[in-house]
Amino acid sequence: MKTIFVVRLFLALLFTTVVLSAQDQGASSSAPSNAVITSPTNVAPSTSATPTTTNPASASCPQGMVCPHDEKMVLPADVHPALKSYCSVPVDGPYIAMSFDDGPSPTLTPRLLDMLKQRGIKVTFFVIGQNVEHSPEVVARAAAEGHEIGNHTWDHPALTKLSDARVQEEINKTSEAIFSATGKKPVLLRPPYGAMNPRVHRIVDQDGMKVVLWSVDPNDWKRPGSAVVERRILAGAKPGAIILSHDIHPGTIEAMPATLDALLAKGYKFVTVSELIAMESQHPKAITTTPASSTAPTTKK
Ligand SMILES: [Zn+2]
Predict the structure, then answer these.
(1) Between the N and C ends of the chain, which has fewer C-beta atoms within 10 Å?
(2) By C-alpha distance, which of 272, 249, 251, 260 is closest to 105?
(3) Is residue 4 part of a domain?
(4) Which of 147, 156, 201, 246 is an active site residue?
(5) 257 C-alpha vs ligand 1 centroid, how far in Å?
(6) Smallest Cα–Cα separation from 96: which of 190, 233, 205?
(7) What is the DSSP letter of 185?
(8) What band does 81 get if pLDDT is binned at 50, 70 and 90?
(9) pLDDT higher than threshold 50 for residue 300
């Protein structure tokens, strides 16, 4: 009996350890360089409907939005009206902004740049400073081809957990790396994990930068496969949307030709995040995004 009890106790402990370890990995898996692959558990429903009329994006971030790491996101606009984050932008046209985080990747980002160039699409890259230091030529090319480069910190910490001095260091060092690669200082910051609070927001504001979050998250860092990434982006896209994805995962890059072509076919126009913010409308109209076959691209897959 005693032996059986000991064996059962051992098995129970082993199970608990495995579960806790899996949760830990899930919580750290969007770290840039050592991402852990987890199997997708919540595949978005397949909504292939093409809207003919789409309500514009709301002006503020969704209430109760939770960042990818279960840390409750503090929405600065709710806490202090002067502190504004952009999840989406109300606009008077079928404009959307694609954004790619955590790069540059020396191999995948150039492939993505080729795809964007073929389609005349401009996007925004939120780059990690230490990756810019490794591949400055990739960032220089992206900027030269008309894409916007935003700051995504030096090594991807949750800024809310750092001192003021460390937050400033993460931002400054990255902005300097971007400046030395492109000749331009970034004006946008995307906080890793979406982690933001009024204290960090004020530091970003004092640096003259805007805080940019997102309204569409395909969870591509969990590597659900390119078809799922495509389906989730298409399901979430609406005028004024800011779409999040990562140019460090092969599946995301593989999803892009079909995703971009489908969005173009629906009549969406791609702009950078700063261009989208400049289009902000106080009284946005409902926008008709009838699939315009005449303007849809021919097969470029
Ligand atoms: Zn990131």
Answers:
(1) N
(2) 249
(3) no
(4) 246
(5) 22
(6) 233
(7) -
(8) low
(9) no
Distance of CA 49 from the midpoint of ligand 1 (Å): 30
- From CA 294, how far away is CA 234, in angstroms rounded? 20
- What is the Cα–Cα distance from 248 to 30, expressed in whole angstroms? 10
Cα–ligand 1 centroid distance for 171 (angstroms): 14
Confidence of residue 286 (pLDDT cuts 50, 70, 90): confident
User: pLDDT, tens digit, for every residue of 173-201?
Assistant: 999 999 999 999 999 999 999 999 999 99
- 26 part of a folded domain: no
Report yes or no on 36 lying in a domain.
Answer: no
Beta bridge partners of 242: 97
Q: Where are the alpha helices (DSSP H) in the chain?
A: 2-28, 76-79, 108-119, 129-134, 136-144, 164-182, 198-206, 226-236, 250-265, 273-278
Catalytic residue at 246?
Answer: yes
Find the CATH number of the domain harbouring 185: 3.20.20.370
Q: Residue 63 pLDDT more than 50? A: no
Cα separation of 259 and 264, whole Å? 9
Measured in angstroms, how far is the CA atom of residue 222 from the centroid of ligand 1? 13
Chain-centre distance for alpha carbon 43: 18
**Between 266 and 57, residue with greater pLDDT:** 266
Report residues near ion ligand 1: CB below 5 Å: 101-102, 192
From 101, 217, 220, 247, the catalytic residue:
101
Is 164 catalytic? The answer is: no
Domain residues for the domain of 234 are 59-278
State how many domains the chain has: 1
Q: Which two tokens stand for residue 170?
A: 């993460």
Tell me if 238 is assigned to some domain: yes
Tell me how many helices (H) and strands (E) the chain has.
10, 10
